[in-house]
Design goal:
CATH topology of one domain: Rossmann fold
CATH class of one domain: Alpha Beta
Helix content: 55-70%
Strand content: 5-15%
Distance between the termini: 42 Å
Number of helices: 26
Oligomer: single chain
């Protein structure tokens, strides 16, 4: 069983530590945005001019008297949830603020201040004044706070008091004017109504004489009908019920007759039991059903000539006759009932019609009188309402009134400026800076589609991660076997060995999607780890586009792989040794004009086969696989391929495409190496190499290691020479 087999992908769920990881990684962005917002908020706060505030408190009430009048307005009007808001708008209206501007002559004063001495127009002054006003309610009370801001504390207090006084004066004048005007209008309307009542009374008296209407007939609102209204309603109700019953029964009878024609007696019997259940008919149908079932069973058992079968047939025929007779009886009863209902309906209609005709005739004769009488009564009632209203209003005007607007607290000049609120602005700047910084960091992280975690690699590429390499890794040949970074490559070596399905697979190509992902350093250090464990290892610099391994080993690149493939030198002449006895090196050699033909040649395949025989492990460095065919050729010719992915460098689709290219040419991709991890920023990778790093440094503090280079007087320990 493959020990590094990738588990099936699971649904990604963010943990708190994932958020914390993003914050740590993007801390530079967060800190920059935070400082920018805080510094901007602080500068703006200190640049803004200071202003003072003064507050006047007024108590407002709806119009009402000290004692309950004849017309209790509070009860009649009801609760108004928009009263306070309406008064807010009234205080800020041109009606009130215009008075304040006129009383304080703000057009001239603010003209000298804001318009270079030119007098302002009232709308301009109102706009400036509204910007300085702040109206507030005191929760649970009918108090309103009028807060005015100004650069001068005395001016703020003066304007606040002027607004309160102007609003109070307006409410009092409005109330008095409305009361006086309302009573005068009511009196004029009452005089007009009195004249209308007199004219209507004369017309009623004249009609009574002309139509010879008695006192008994004139006592009601119309002529007395032959039938009482209650009796007529009962007869009409009976007629409506009879008509409905007649229609229902007639419809039912017609439907049953139609069904009888279509279905026959037995089908009609079934319909009757469904429409209006009949106990006898239902019983006969049940008996018929049982008899037919028994007949079927007996015929199946004894044949049609059996005595029991014949007896059962006779019983069924008898039941058929009874059912038919019962159905005919039910239909006859329905027919009789429909006829009876029809006669009853005709009688009721005739009786109602006679009474209605007589009443209509009498009503037509006396209608003018009763219409005139009703008009007179309506005019009299309206006159009474007007008379009572006038009396109520006169009494209410004379009742003592509570002040509808009362100035509770006069405005006083402020002792210290209230704007700008420096602590609040700076605190808001800090909060907004943090929120914007963190939000921007998460937005950048959302846009970043590069590889960030091992889960990203395994979820996207469906391939195991063989190793995790930290940042700032040097060359293990220079750092020695006890290098703090060596353990990461030893873990990679172990995972690679366990990933092999056959011990004969010993040629390995290291590829990457793009340039600069660290594949050359990875192949060099991984080969060094194999060599340090005593296995014969060789590194082949097959990156014919941009070779770098000879620079790491500080040797010449004048002779190497291309010389061998072009048959200019033998294998023994191009292979070089290193300071590690078990590690050899084959440089790229002089770069040909076209490397494609060389790497895909038979000579290259022979070279790979020869190196497989001579060495335990053969490592090939390659150019980026995206856009260059060399890496794809190598991946198809070697036993195993390892893909190097640099942490947070290239988008995931690019790495996925690189993997697809390897698989497309038949390469054996055994795993991924996640390179250049910043352990100080991303704590999620600590347990991959941090433990060994800490352990190494603790051991180094207790027992210092004297490097070979120091013992030899600083001589370079990389003594590169020809192997053969």
């Amino acid at each position: 069983m493959d020990p590094l087999k990738v588990a099936p992908p699971q649904e990604a769920k963010l943990h708190f530590l994932d958020y914390w990881r993003i914050i740590r990684i993007r801390k530079t962005v967060i800190l920059a945005v935070f400082l920018l917002v805080v510094i901007t908020a602080t500068l703006v706060t200190f640049i803004l001019p200071e202003s003072y505030s003064s507050k006047a408190r007024i108590k407002i009430d709806r119009d009402q008297t000290d004692i309950s009048g004849l017309a209790d307005r509070s009860t009649l009007a009801g609760y108004d949830p928009f009263f306070i808001q309406t008064e807010f708008e009234l205080i800020q209206s041109e009606l009130i603020l215009g008075k304040v501007i006129a009383d304080l002559d703000l057009n001239t004063e603010w003209g000298r201040k804001y318009a270079s001495g030119e007098r302002l127009r009232t709308p301009e002054t109102i706009a400036l004044l509204k910007q300085r006003i702040d109206l507030r309610t005191v929760r649970g009370t009918s108090l309103i706070e009028i807060v005015v801001y100004s650069e001068k504390p005395e001016e703020a207090a003066r304007i606040a008091n002027a607004i309160a006084d102007a609003y109070k004066t307006h409410r009092q004048e409005q109330r008095a004017q409305l009361s006086r005007g309302g009573i005068k209008a009511l009196e004029e309307r009452f005089a007009e109504q009195e004249a209308k009542v007199k004219a209507a009374q004369e017309r009623v008296d004249n009609l009574r004489k002309e139509l010879n209407i008695s006192d008994a007939m004139a006592s009601g609102d119309g002529p007395s009908p032959l039938m009482t209204a209650e009796t007529l309603r009962k007869i009409e109700s009976l007629r409506i019920e009879s008509q409905a019953e007649y229609v229902r029964q007639a419809t039912r009878l017609d439907r049953l007759k139609n069904l009888g024609k279509e279905l026959g007696p037995e089908g009609l019997a079934q319909a009757i039991t469904t429409d209006a259940p009949d106990t006898l008919l239902t019983s006969l149908l049940d008996q018929l059903t049982m008899a037919e079932q028994r007949l079927i069973a007996l015929e199946a058992d004894y044949g049609p000539e059996n005595t029991e079968v014949l007896k059962c047939k006779g019983l069924a025929e008898d039941l058929h006759k009874k059912i038919k007779s019962r159905v005919e009886g039910i239909m006859l009863g329905l027919d009789t009932r429909v006829l009876s209902l029809s006669n009853s309906l005709v009688n009721l209609q005739q009786e109602v019609g006679r009474a209605t005709t007589n009443d209509v005739t009498q009503a037509n004769l006396t209608r003018p009188y009763f219409e005139a009488k009703r008009a007179l009564e309506e005019l009299q009632r309206f006159r009474q309402v007007l008379d009572a209203k006038i009396a109520f209003e006169k009494i209410d005007v004379e009742l003592p009134k509570t002040l509808m607007v009362e100035v509770v607290d006069r405005a006083m000049p402020g002792l210290r400026p209230v704007r700008p609120n420096k602590p609040l602005n700076i605190a808001l700047g800090i909060i907004i800076g943090l929120v914007v910084g963190v939000g921007l960091a998460f937005f950048i992280e959302y846009l970043d589609t590069s590889v960030k975690t091992i889960d990203d690699v395994e979820r996207a590429l469906q391939c195991p991660v063989l190793g995790v390499i930290p940042q700032n890794v040097g060359l293990l040949v220079d750092e020695g076997t006890e290098s703090p970074h060596a353990e990461a490559y030893r873990v990679l070596r172990t995972n690679l060995l366990f990933s092999r399905k056959d011990d004969k697979l010993n040629t390995i190509a290291i590829v990457s999607a793009g340039a600069g992902e660290g594949k050359s350093t990875t192949v060099f250090n991984l080969a060094a780890v194999f060599a340090q464990s005593g296995q014969r290892t060789i590194i082949v610099d097959s990156d014919l586009r941009r070779p770098t391994l000879h620079k790491m080993l500080r040797v010449t690149n004048a002779i190497g792989l291309t010389n061998y493939l072009l048959r200019q030198n033998t294998l023994e002449e191009v292979i070089q040794t290193t300071s590690l006895p078990t590690l050899d090196f084959l440089s790229s050699g002089k770069l040909p004009s076209s490397s494609l033909g060389i790497l895909s040649s038979t000579q290259m395949k022979d070279l790979i086969g020869e190196l497989k025989q001579r060495y335990d492990f053969v490592f090939f460095d390659s150019p980026p696989i995206m856009g260059v065919s060399d890496a794809s050729i190598l991946a198809s010719e070697v036993d195993m391929t390892i893909q190097v992915i640099q942490y947070r460098r290239y988008p995931q689709p690019m790495n996925i495409r690189a993997k697809q290219l390897i698989e497309k040419v038949g390469g054996n991709l055994v795993g991924i190496v996640l390179n250049n991890i910043n352990m100080s920023q991303d704590e999620s990778y600590y347990y991959y190499s941090g433990y060994y790093h800490d352990y190494y440094y603790r051991s180094e503090e207790q027992e210092p290691v004297v490097k070979e280079g120091a013992e030899s007087g600083g001589k370079d320990k990389l003594d590169i020479k020809q192997k053969y």
